[in-house]
Design goal:
The protein is an alpha+beta fold and about 350 residues long. It folds into two domains: about 210 residues, H-NOX domain (Alpha-Beta Complex), CATH 3.90.1520; about 90 residues, Arc Repressor Mutant, subunit A (Orthogonal Bundle). Helix content is about 50%, strand content about 10%. It has 17 helices and seven strands. The strands form two sheets. Strands 3-4-7-5-6 form a five-stranded mixed β-sheet. A two-stranded antiparallel ribbon has the order 1-2. α1 crosses α3, α1 packs parallel to α4 and α11 runs parallel beside α15. The longest helix has 19 residues. The radius of gyration is 22 Å and the shape is globular. Keywords: DNA-binding, Transcription, Transcription regulation.
Length: about 350
């Protein structure tokens, strides 16, 4: 076994990831003979104990609500990257769906209606898993473009990026219970020696030395239903997640609500839709905004006024739709109140 000393950056107490993801990654790296138990123990002895427990099919559900330092998962990826015999390990791990190692977020999204709701729920709550991961959604010519990146300055190697991109595709197929065609894939790194393996995983054309790491799919895959969905269970999980005190890596609840309103006012002018996207009940959203000395109606009014100023040249009927009013009468009443 080739070993190297791994240097990780100094991280603050706020840099944490879901514990079960760290244990699962360590288990998979060990299973692929990329690292050994001693190397895992050097990161943390308790981590090694949970890896053994997972290997022996013991119950590790207690980890579902726990957080581990992000430095641990970065150290694991750097160990993998330093092993010259493990060049394709990120893609291989990404292709492995492990239902027994699901965290809160995966348990939640499996009860969404379709892949569109899966993406929205996942992206709005990605800090439950790892706030350093980011996916941006773009649309072009009836296709959806999913572009992945890690927070700048975080020392994640290439294999971590490969794992995240392959895993998104394979988990989508697992949740839908069917194959999902990919139009093409773009990677920022040079063509590796295991290009054929990546093509077998994605079953499409792959481009390297690109400006982004992107999966491109047909938009109609967004409406594929999830056979295991259960709205009642989803509601329970949303309440559970909203009661947890995870660090707000993606900003305060006020910032997240503002961001959603700004991205899609047409959808989120309804507090029910906004609360669902934020993975909490309507009452919880009210309470959390009140703790920040604000309210949903205030945030909505402020965003509507911002849009009105930017598009004040449009006729009233178009402004009514743009600002999410049910009719022109409600629009004019709001205008009078703002003045």
């Amino acid at each position: 076994m080739h070993t190297n000393t791994v240097l990780t950056p100094m991280l603050t107490d706020r840099d944490h990831v879901t514990a079960i993801a760290v244990v699962d990654l360590a288990r998979e790296l060990k299973r692929h003979a990329v690292i050994n138990l001693t190397q895992i123990q050097n990161i943390d002895p308790k981590l090694a104990e949970y890896v053994v427990a997972l290997e022996e099919d013991q119950d590790i559900s207690e980890l579902m609500e726990r957080r581990y330092p992000e430095s641990w998962i970065i150290a694991l990826w750097q160990l993998a990257d330093s092993n010259p015999l493990a060049t394709s390990v990120g893609a291989r791990i990404g292709a492995t769906v492990s239902p027994e190692a699901r965290g809160l977020l995966i348990n939640l999204i499996q009860h969404c209606e379709n892949l569109k709701e899966v993406l929205e729920t996942y992206l709005n709550n990605i800090s439950l898993a790892n706030a350093s991961e980011s996916w941006k959604i773009g649309h072009r010519d009836n296709r959806i473009e999913l572009t992945f990146s890690f927070t700048a300055g975080k020392l994640y190697p290439r294999c971590a990026t490969e794992r995240s991109m392959v895993a998104l595709h394979k988990w989508a197929e697992y949740l839908c219970g069917q194959k999902i065609p990919v139009c093409s894939v773009e990677f920022t790194f040079p063509q590796p020696e295991y290009k054929d393996f990546l093509q077998r995983l994605f079953r499409c054309e792959i481009h390297f030395d690109c400006s982004r790491n992107t999966l491109i799919l047909h938009e109609d895959v967004l409406f594929l239903p999830l056979p295991q969905r259960n709205r009642y269970v989803k509601g329970i999980l949303e309440q559970k997640i909203s009661s947890l005190c995870f660090p707000e890596e993606n900003g305060s609840i006020e910032e997240r609500a503002r961001r959603l309103l700004r991205e899609n006012l047409a959808s989120y002018h309804s507090i029910e839709n906004l609360a669902q996207a934020l993975c909490m009940s309507r009452a919880t959203l009210y309470r959390k905004l009140k703790e920040k000395k604000t309210s949903f109606s205030r945030l909505l009014d402020e965003e509507r006024q911002r849009l009105l100023y930017l598009h004040r040249h449009l006729p009233a009927a178009q402004l009514c739709d743009l600002l999410g009013f049910r009719d022109t009468s409600a629009y004019y009443k709001a205008r009078k109140r703002w003045n």
